[in-house]
Amino acid sequence: xxxxxxxxxxxxxxxxxxxxxxxxxxxxxxxxxxxxxxxxxxxxxxxxxxxxxxxxxxxxxxxxxxxxxxxxxxxxxxxxxxxxxxxxxxxxxxxxxxxxxxxxxxxxxxxxxxxxxxxxxxxxxxxxxxxxxxxxxxxxxxxxxxxxxxxxxxxxxxxxxxxxxxxxxxxxxxxxxxxxxxxxxxxxxxxxxxxxxxxxxxxxxxxxxxxxxxxxxxxxxxxxxxxxxxxxxxxxxxxxxxxxxxxxxxxxxxxxxxxxxxxxxxxxxxxxxxxxxx
Amino acid sequence: xxxxxxxxxxxxxxxxxxxxxxxxxxxxxxxxxxxxxxxxxxxxxxxxxxxxxxxxxxxxxxxxxxxxxxxxxxxxxxxxxxxxxxxxxxxxxxxxxxxxxxxxxxxxxxxxxxxxxxxxxxxxxxxxxxxxxxxxxxxxxxxxxxxxxxxxxxxxxxxxxxxxxxxxxxxxxxxxxxxxxxxxxxxxxxxxxxxxxxxxxxxxxxxxxxxxxxxxxxxxxxxxxxxxxxxxxxxxxxxxxxxxxxxxxxxxxxxxxxxxxxxxxxxxxxxxxxxxxxxxxxxxxxxxxxxxxxxxxxxxxxxxxxxxxxxxxxxxxxxxxxxxxxxxxxxxxxxxxxxxxxxxxxxxxxxxxxxxxxx
Lengths: 278, 359
Fold this sequence. Notes:
The structure holds 2 protein chains of 2 kinds.
Chain A: H1 2-19, E1 38-42, E2 61-64, E3 67-70, H2 99-110, H3 112-115, E4 136-140, E5 145-149, E6 155-159, E7 174-180, E8 183-189, E9 209-218, E10 221-229, E11 238-246, H4 259-262, H5 264-268
Parallel strand pairs in A: 6-7
Antiparallel strand pairs in A: 1-4, 1-11, 2-3, 4-5, 5-6, 7-8, 8-9, 9-10, 10-11
Chain B: H1 2-17, E1 47-50, E2 66-67, H2 69-86, E3 127-128, E4 131-133, E5 137-139, H3 150-158, E6 214-219, E7 223-228, E8 233-239, E9 254-260, E10 263-269, E11 285-294, E12 297-305, E13 314-321, H4 337-358
């Protein structure tokens, strides 16, 4: 009888476990914290547009006789310049813009070629830096957590002790991190109003406050969430989430992408002594 | 920059004066320091370091290798006084500089620029083995970088209008070679926000003698990352790895590390031909050695090997003291109005000159 009860309980436990698998427990760093070290990359279309979107002919458009066509400045890129479709990373669908902010986004879209900070290789801000289509590397030791991003050589040092309010606004903000169980929670503020969320003109003000959550949910996956609060632009806080994947190449590593050099002709070429054809 | 140049000139003069004082006796070797360990058992080099120092890369002509404590203290007091005086608030009576500048030179010259409030050029001499050093270069023993080979001098001359990674942000009007403003590529890397000036990112990592001298080391089992304050450049050193193929070139070179007991040894090759530290060739090899020598400092030593440029390898070293300071964002390119205006200014000057000729 006794053994039958044990058997029953065991079977029940197995059955329950099969229904709700135990949450993934990440390999541990020497200090017992989940180990986030590695070279990671988002694999999505969020940098084109964080909202769900259909494919578009180009990032810069103009009206055509039967609908939008690529703007003259990007025409020659052909299919290479098209926007791939994406299911979006914003929870609950569309962004809760205030009406006047929605108008500003439209203006951003219309002026994308001159307005998107990515075009000038400016620092991408947070969370955009996470899904720029380049790998980034997390360095985690018992005394520091630091991320180096390949795109524009952007960097973030996660303060493990709150240094107090950010002394000045910045492009990448001030990041303060703490562990909540399996999750690294990073509170980021002190932003300027110069960065965007994507190439679709989604934007924020200098009141932006981002809370990021990094959770290992598999041997080669971090589930990334970012809660965005900006009362000047949005009617309520909203959340984006996406998996980050570990780069699998044996020789995976960050390489140079100093795009500052690549935009010199665009930004300063007209001031050469002998300007090239523009 | 004017401040820096004047300080260096003053320093050189003072050092020359102290020449007659006999060399300080070397202190007896203390028991080697054993650094705290990371979980994988290697010395823990992590932390924030402030590299600012008064010790120049090369020993001023005729000076001895080390200062006595008294000599150093006197020089350091002089610098502190200068810094205090030049850092004072500008009074309301100050008038605008004369048209065309006041004739002074350097990045802050001509029409005035930073006063000392904004600068952090260093306040003390680097101390290695208890010696207050007068140069970072220790080999050759005269504390001077060896002569360049004739071929290297020729090469450097031919590319004079492409500034090297150790260049300061700007050279003085009149000292710049003809054509220096023709293209953005002819401006110093610091002015273009591609690397910090003065070889601050390195390798070899040098003090800027100006400001923004912080460097952060983060260390994991497989990597050592060195962040340079200017221009948020993170050099990622892969431990016990292989160099990239020669076809892949990097602004800060390709760095591979290994441990030799208490010391992290880093070999860097594969530089771009745009970096060109002190006009070196792109085949320059830098060997760096990082050793914790005290609870609050590490010793940084580097050897430069580039037979295409110098007839012999040369070595320098200095102490990196730990600091509690934070690195704040050094967003350079994002507000680089200067580069555009420098080029526009040159075009304007040419247009004005052409018009004058016509008249």
